[in-house]
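Office hours follow-up: a student asked to see two folded examples consecutively, so here they are.
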Amino acid sequence: MATVELRFSAQPEHVRTARLVAAAVARRAGVDEAVLDEVRLAVGEACSRAVNLHRTYGLTAPVRVVLNEEEKVFSIEVGDGVPAPGTAAAAEDVPVSRGSVPAGDLYEADSGDGEDEMGLAVISGLVDDVEVTSDDHGGVIRMSWPTASAVALP
């Protein structure tokens, strides 16, 4: 049972690195080769979403990616630093590089093109087991895939 954690500054060029690392760790964990493209695409969408949130609102915290290899499942969590509305952290201002923005506004702001919702729709289309949550510490997209050890042999 291994865990790999990546933290990177919210720069679009780092998304590719996260995709490559996720695919390599998924392969080592025993995720079926036919599913690796889905892993790469889903991680790319989740990381791009987090990068966009951080860049749009000037958040300085890094994007966090945790890859967990367990006995029968491989999971990836992509976390952003935007607290959920209605939480204690959302009641305070989120520190940003140029001033501050009330955290509740981060979730209520609309990019105008539905890019955030489209990214989540793509992820849910690629991953059977996906969960999106948010709390005081930010949002997390958790995705998981079965490994070869989860597949019953005849």
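And the second, which I mentioned at the end of office hours:
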Amino acid sequence: MSKVWFVTGSSRGLGRHFVEAALSRGDKVAASARNTGSLDDLVATYGGAVLPLSMDVTDRAAVFAAVTRAKEHFGRLDVIVNNAGYAQIGAVEELTEQELRDQMETNLFGAVWVVQAALPHLREQGSGHIVQLSSAAGLIAMPLGGAYHASKWALEGLNEALAREVAGFGVKVTIVEPGGFATRDGKNPDPLANGHMAEPNPAYAGLRRHLAEAAGKQPAGDPAAAARTLLKIVDSDAPPLRVLFGQGFYPLVQQAYADRLKTWDDHQDLAAEAHGAQTL
């Protein structure tokens, strides 16, 4: 049975590949983007199966209107993909208030608006699947990514809570955590070239050089393969709450979690002391 998708950030990158994969197998897609001109070729190929929607996820009223239009147009919504987002690059000291607020407005609040707009329809149906694009950056943190990490770590907690809230309504939630994917001319996006950059402070020049040297060193995944994998996930009766897309970051995530557990274990005396308990 074909599904109806609502996908944000459909104009390029993984979002574009998700839309193409869904359409190519006969599903219908409400594809949102700030500029829908990039979707004209999909309309020419798939006709009424794709509904382009001009939408900025930071505009709550526009998000609700777009979701309502998609539901009215297709009659139902089955898969909601929160994909829109970007990376703000800069040391915490370098970030302006506006840069930090803009990062959270798009990556966090934009996702919340989509969920709030779609959930009443999914609850009424008694079914649906919310897919949140997080990142390996939602699990581990690197220098110069504080704003981006903050937005993705927030999404991780938000969607874990959401999954427990909506399970009783028949609604599933999956957090997808991609590593690097070849979404820019067959290469990993370079954060220094494609990200939003804070005004540099010379004190962090060394970290910027290190980031430039490390950029693109992780193996680049195939975005078309990622899209095929997402189809498998949304068709599953028991999809995972979290799934890493790509292999490059898995060892880093393993080490980060091992380090956290060890740190907590090594300092159980401080935990007990802070509680007021007597230590032996």
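Two things to take away from it. The first strand starts at residue 4 and ends at 7. Residues 4-248 form a domain with the Rossmann fold fold (CATH 3.40.50.720).
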